[in-house]
Structures are given as structure tokens and as C-alpha cells.
Amino acid sequence: MVDYSGYQHLLVEIKDGIALLTMNRPEVLNATNARLHNELSRIWLDLGADPEVRVALITGAGTAFSAGGDFEMIESAIGDAEGVARNMQEASDIVHNMINLDKPVISAINGVAVGAGLAVALLADISIAAEDARITDGHIRLGVAAGDHATAIWPLLCGMAKAKYYLLTCDFLDGKEAERIGLVSMAVPAEEVMPRAMQVAQKLAAGPQPAIRWTKRALNQWLRMAAHTSFDYSLALEMLGFFGSDIQEGLQSLREKRDPQFPSAR
Fold first, then answer.
1. Residue 165 and residue 51: Cα distance in Å, rounded?
2. Which of 125, 160, 168, 147 has its CA nearest to residue 231?
3. Domains and CATH numbers, the chain
4. Among 17, 28, 112, 186, which residue's CB has the most CB atoms within a 10 Å radius?
5. Which residues contact 11 (CB under 8 A, 6 or more apart)?
6. Which tens digit of pLDDT belongs to each residue from 42-74?
7. How far apart, in whole angstroms, are the C-alpha atoms of residue 149 and residue 116?
8. pLDDT tens figures, 25-37
9. How far apart are CA 111 and CA 88, in angstroms?
10. Are 189 and 157 spatial neighbours (Cβ–Cβ below 8 Å)?
11. What is this structure's pTM?
């Protein structure tokens, strides 16, 4: 048995081969602070090592999936080489560890999904979104390159044209549009998200495990190719932005809920 008691913001419940993971900071829409970010980087290794787990299902507590990076975590990393290096390693681990986990992962996107939370939502093998979920990558709105998953997965899911549009503009899209363009597996009414996700999880948990895992492993060769080229490159470029002036204005404008006036655009 794997001990999950050390996880603080990620609740782990295992039943009938299904690990239900709940990001549990509902008071801040499950924004990823330093602790949750770290937990999201490690959980996939523990699930892979746990013989009791056949499928993982991840969602957010309350009305959101995850509102992205916590403002305090972002601010503390600005201009801090050590903090940036730590965040970069964890962001890399989230992507690589999810890709390398052979057990299937399902995301139940029950509300807003941004940033690192969106990375987990879209890297899941099957993604089920509420029709009214609000999705955006958000990096460029903050003033840094889209680096924590997007260049690896968005073009594969919805094509380069749509990927460029949404990543460069940071426009929101709802669950219905995300399903239409292929960004998520399916969109359902909000009250059906968890029942439908659990139904899929139960089907996979009852299926032939080697066949399911080997199929995922083979399909993820596409993601491994992207992860070792565009993703690692984009992540390094994102981290460079933490030493510029645009991120300070982007963060401040988000706090003040106003349009940014980026120094580089003046």
C-alpha cells in the first residue's frame, strides 16, 4: 500500500481500483500554491507504484477545477532564480510523470480550468468537461510564454490553428466549444460531470489492464516526442519571462481585475 497521508491539498480516496483525486482549496477556486503544485508533480509516481490503483480520476472541490497559479506563488518566483528553477522542475515533472504513467487518467473538469490545473485536465487521457466550464491557458495574459503543457498537447488535440488562436489571445472557451474543437473528450451538463467521469473510470477499471496500459503507452509516444522538443523548449522560455517586467504588470492587472498595460507593448 502507498501512503498518501502526506498530501495536504490533494485528497486521495481509493475504492474498487479507482483513485479519486480532489484538488482541495475551494476557497481560492483550487488555485495551485507551492504545496499543491508540488503534490501535482509527485502524485502520478505514487499512483504508478500503488498496486491497488488501476485508474485515476481527478477533479476540483467546489465549483472550480483549478483557477491556475496562486498569485503569491507567482510573485515569490519573479526574479528569483532558485524559485524559478524549482517551479520549472515541478512543471516538467507534472507533464512527464503524467505522460509516463501507464494507468489511465480521467479529468472531471467541473468549472474554471487555468494554468497548471488546465495542464492536468488536458493531459488526462479522457477529459470530461462541464458545458459551462471556463477554460483558458492564461500564460500570455500573465506576461510569460505558454510553457507548462500547451505546446505539447494543444496542437495534437485541436490543431495548430485553434491552438495558436487560443494560446496567443488567451480567450476563454466553454466546455461546449472545447468539445467541438477537440480540446476535451466530451462536454456534459454540469451535474453530469462526475457521474459520467466515474462511469468511464469504472469501465476502465474493469477492463483488461495490460491492454489498456499498453495502448496508452503507445499513444503517448506522440506526447513523448512533443515533450522532448516543443514542451521542454517552451517551459524554458516561460521561465525567462519571470525575469522581465511584463510579468509584474500582468500579475498586478490580474489582482486589480483590469486590462494589462505591458511595458513591452508601449
1. 42
2. 147
3. 10-193+201-210 (3.90.226.10)
4. 112
5. 20, 21, 22, 24, 61
6. 999 999 999 999 999 999 999 999 999 899 999
7. 8
8. 999 999 999 999 9
9. 26
10. no
11. 0.96
